[in-house]
Amino acid sequence: MVARKSVCVRKLSNGKRCVEVGFGRFLANAKVTVEAIVESWSDRIGAAASGRHVLAIQDTSDIQFATSTGRRRGLGKIKTGNVFGLSLHAMLGVDAGSGVCLGLIAGEVWTRSPRKKPDHRKRALAKKESRRWIDTAGIAREVLSEATMITIVGDREEDFFAAWAKVPADKVHLLTRLRSDHALVEGGTVRQAAGFPAIADRQTLELRERTNRKAREVRLALRFGTVALKRPKNTLEKDLPESVSVRFVEVIEQNPPKGVEPVHWLLLTTHRIETVADAWKIVGWYKQRWIIEQFFRVLKSQGLQIQDSELQTAKRLERLVAVAAKAAATIIQLVQARDSRHHQPVNLAFNNGEIDALLALNQSLEGKTQLQKNPHRPKSLAWAAWIIAKLGGWDGYKSSRPPGPITFHDGLAHFRAMAEGWALRDVCMP
Predict the structure, then answer these.
(1) What is the pTM of this model?
(2) Radius of gyration in angstroms for the set of CA atoms belonging to the chain, rounded to a whole number
């Protein structure tokens, strides 16, 4: 898939009918489960997380596929109207200090059932889609057991009382943006309580580009405090505590440019916040959510174009998405590694056989002058990124524009095919 820059089975087969049939059988094989593919996402991240504070950032994205009346491909509705597709929930591990992407941790791929479900309030948590936020956090605790600290970072969809009660544990914290204006034990709501403290500090921060927002600098006012969330009266889960103590951090852009929606984040977390520096640290960790947004963009519009697949059944599409997610995470790691600031090891993204192929390729891609040499530490991820970028068409000069997701995508296309050939170098042909 990566080698052909496509998820179309016909293109993947390079015109060979036997390859097309074989790949189709692989995706149709009942023994090839989405669960097993997703489980393999974290094959390297456990060791990489050792001794780190890891931000386990999770989010969900719907992937739309083309359908027509009478040809829904077994897909479920993902939006209002005749929009069909499937959903991907993914969790990325990110170093809290450096922002380096360590890889995928866990997740889920599923297709919604066409059957009408009972009212959301009348369903137990185990039968709601929202349980994925708690389940994925539970897997992260196991996969990242060697980390010194884990902060589960989610957007507003993760802000519900059961998550606050079940996710935090020994060295595991939760950080989300307020969605529901929770009732408080002491009376009132979170939003009301957040309005009482005086502004504690002001700082200028840089916001990265998003799909609906350009990158820009913002001047933010900050305040923070502590509240106790009260268990909702209508919850069906009787094992939840009566209350959960959390800290809030509110940042407000008070003078936004004309025509620009002001930044206003009301963040909740289980981390202790005793100083202004502690509060700004929470804001900085939440800002790292942009990485998972980039991950979904690489999976769809900026690279793999997963939504263009013409596979005929939802089950096969689910397996394809699970494979594509791993490729998208690798591209994110290479884009980050290109500046070599953090010296991550190459085995964060490549196995031993692929590293051998990279060593051989590096010799052939380097020029005779010092400017044409790979400037990075051998067997670092930045060293590998230089090689992959060269394969993708980058000229290697510092004066040139840095390689981006598309260049790394094209470089991986060449590399995967070469790595397969390199693995066969010692095979004896009779």
Answers:
(1) 0.87
(2) 23
